[in-house]
Amino acid sequence: MIIVDGTPISTSSQGRERLLVSLLEHPVLVSASDSFKALPQKKISLSDKWDSNGSTQFKYVYVFQREYAIVDPTRVKMVGTDEATTCVGLVIRHPVTGMTSVAHMDSPAVVDLGISQMLSFVIDSNTPTELDVHLIGGYQDVTLKWSNGKNDAENYSRSPGYSFPLCSKILEALQCSEEKFHVQTLCILEHNTIRNSVGTPYPVVTGFLVDTCTGSILPATFDRTSRGPDEIVRRVRVSVSSEDPSWKGKLLDAYDTCNDRFQIAACSWSPRWKSIAISLQQLSDSEILLNCSTSPLAEGPDFVDNERRLYDYLIRHPNWAETFPRREPRVFEWTAGGGWVRS
After folding, report:
1. Do the Cβ atoms of 209 and 44 come closer than 8 Å?
2. pLDDT tens digit string along 204-263?
3. Could you tell me the residue range of the domain that residue 97 belongs to?
4. Within a domain: residue 117?
5. Does the N terminus or the C terminus of the chain have fewer Cβ atoms within 10 A?
6. Number of independent structural domains in the chain
């Protein structure tokens, strides 16, 4: 069940698209979205490892596309994600225990099982309560149709965009759940869209950082040094996981909550990915954007380079067992000096 400003949102036969449109128009959520976008953006980089007092960098967990992580506030200070253009970052936090779950959703196909995965360590039978929820990312990547002065959700949902169907599915899953979800931030779609001088839409916010102790959330970006650990392998998993039946409909495991370490779960891929990668590597930068992105005009400046590094890895490692021998996870521990190191 979805709750906004203390009031449950009633379920009706209007459909999930209408549910989304009604929430987008809710004055409390509109105000919250505007306030969130007005916050200064936090830039995360491992090059800023030391603060003015010589203290080590705060401990954080980074979540890649199609991944999720559940973190304990007694162990991890921050958790976040970025690079979300048509994707949506979903935060579910227990306001009493502080257990915080973050996912980077990229498809309606992973929403149902993905939310179940996200809730596994967040729900506490000893302290039942409304769970705080934030949705950030996804933008108006198609033109919203209008009918009689109102949003025509049916026409919009059938258009070729990516963000609207994903946002609709997430909210439908939350509304149909037995858990109570207090939606506090809905910075998505039209509330997360800006247009340039010729009318091309771009997302305003593509990433965020959650303070697990306070529950506060800030817009954020991460540079290459801070998107770790095991950046390229985790990017490879996003591209090839659709072929691995063990991940069908699921979000990818990356962080071990109980043992407070990154545990990059195994993912297999067929040798044909080598030939696919060779073909893609031969494309121009603009062709890679057009063929490999759901939002070619809105990607960050390092998108193409990240794709090419991914292709290089698949060319050099056509056998997935080289990356995950005996299908065992790749484990990384936090060091006293700050940063995740493979153990």
Report:
1. yes
2. 999 999 999 999 999 999 999 999 999 999 999 999 998 999 999 999 999 999 999 999
3. 2-44+58-226
4. yes
5. C
6. 1
Distance CA 118, CA 263 (A): 16
CA pseudo-torsion sign 174, 243, 314, 257: positive
Is the pLDDT at 153 greater than 60, yes or no?
A: no
- Amino acid 164 reads F
Three-class secondary structure assignment of the chain: CEEECCEECCCCCCCHHHHHHHHHCCHHHHHHHHHHHHCCCEEECHHHCECCCCCECCCEEECCCCEEEEECCCCCCEEEECCCCCCEEEEEECCCCCCEEEEEECCHHHHHHHHHHHHCCCCCCCCCCCEEEEEEEEECCCCCCEECCEECHHHHHCCCCCHHHHHHHHHHHHHHCCCCEEEEEEEEEHHHEEECCCCCEEECCCCEEEECCCCCEEEEEECHHHCCCCHHHHHHHHHHHHHCHHHCCCCEECEECCCCEEEECCCCCCCHHHHHHHHHHCCCHHHHHHHHCCCCCCCCCCHHHHHHHHHHHHHHCCCHHHHCHHHCCEEEEECCCCCEEEC
Residue 221 lies in a domain: yes
**Does a structural domain hold residue 190?**
yes
CATH of the domain at 32: 3.30.1330.200
Distance CA 170, CA 168 (A): 6
Residue 296 lies in a domain: no
pLDDT of residue 17: 75
Q: What is the pTM of this model?
A: 0.92
Mean pLDDT of the chain: 91
